[in-house]
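Recall that a protein's primary structure is simply its ordered list of amino acids. Everything else, from secondary elements to tertiary packing, is in principle encoded there. The following example makes that idea concrete.
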Amino acid sequence: MANTIESARTEIGVLLEAAYNKAVADGVLPPGGESVIGTIDIPRDEKNGDYASAWAMAAAKPLGLPPRKIAEALVERISLDGSYFTEVEIAGPGFLNFRLAERWYREVLQTVETLDRDYGRIDVGQGQKVMVEFVSANPTGAMTIGNARGGVLGDTMAAVLDRAGYDVWREFYVNDAGNQVELFAESLEARYIQLIRGEEAVTFPENGYHGEDLKALAQLFYDQHGEAYLDIDEQTRRADMMAFGLAYNIAKMKADLERYGITYDRWFMESELYDSGYLEETIQLLIDGGHTYEKDGALWLNLKDLGAEKDDVLRRANGHYTYFAADIAYHRDKFVKRGFDRVIDVWGADHHGHAIRFKKILPAIGIDPEKLDFLIMQMVRLTRDGETVRVSKRTGKSITLADLLDEIPKDAARFFFSTKPDTHLEFDLGLAVREDSENPIYYIHYAHARICTLVKALADEGETVPKTANVDFAQIMGVDERALIKAIARLPEEVRIAARDYDPSKVNRYAQELAAAFHGFYSHCRIKGEAPELLRARLKLADTARRTIACCLDVLGVSAPERM
């Protein structure tokens, strides 16, 4: 099993079951404990063993005996020969504390050696098809810092699920239809006419897009077409400008996200739902199911009957479908048409209420709401030298994803944004570029590069990293070595929990803790200049830590530098 922590837990269960059955056969313990499941934890203090089982406490009531008496009967009959454990002792009221044997430590290093960059891959997902939809920013302007955080959370969540054995699909939903893009086209048209005839030539649309980027887009359109579009009918002009503007902005989004290390399996166009008739088909399904009503010329979804607090409009009085209606059809497409087993939407904090209401709708279109999950992220506050940063030093405007990547390295941006999603994030731009141990990504990079430098230096002296089978483990059973091996062993378990909790930040924190474990080991355990057997054993351990750090960085979409 690739998860050596879980392997040890499983073996404790097997050992205790065998010991209990023997105690029943000997007449020392009564039957009735066959279904007992006691917790098996890793104590914070190694004095309490490497693993601690509470089986005796859990069995006390069904067996009608004091926990310590049960524990004594088990310890007398437990056989550790050939197991992952060297001893078991009773503590307190009946805890069973197990200590790991050399076999387990060897298996950790062997697992990393065998799997290499696939270390940390587990199969809890069993190939289930999972879509992670993230960013999905309106293609009417530049991507924001919120999109920057959502991009990393979605991408790393997908990477975690992939490592956990799911069949993962990344998708960007492009809102290229509806009121917002029509308003975008009107705004672009107005800027184009103003560019030629002056500011007073046309009234800018109420609630139009006022950004400088739209003026720049109008200039690009003019550079290609000159004044030719002044004499074209309004409908054609707006349609062509919409197509031009969306194509340009979507291409820019793709370029910025690829620069950020994010690529998608598909950019799904909202317009496909309209053009294919799938949106109308979905709304008709709701109508036929008795979930709608008409009011003031609009079609409403009766959400109150589905358990929500208020109803919502599906089709306005002017005949236009709402974004809400398109979103329902889109999710039906995900589950019914394309057959995803699970869908995870990464949304901002302002969508929390919408997420709650949205799950209420799914049964009305034949979808199990438990198959849809939301990763709701909180707001980001950029700081520098303790002061809030709202504008780019280069442009003097609100900071966009592109501005951020102009100022700090991609690796730092991705690492800082991969923190716990449900907490407000204070992103320190100054810290992100510091080259010291206070900067967590520098600290991790330094650990990886430090090991690479060591391995190369020793290779130049004729000492190569040995195979696990050729390592004398008696040489690396000290406190710091064992601590590092235990830290290395945690990656598959961290992946499992991160996938379970939809929290990729667990890998982020683990990478920092693994780097700290290596730096602690390296500070106390000399490698160069030691006797050959000790040197090779410690070199193998250091290189195993390097491989594991590289696996963490793979998940986080961050580089693993070989020198700094």
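The mean pLDDT is 95. The CA atoms of residues 156 and 263 lie 12 Å apart.
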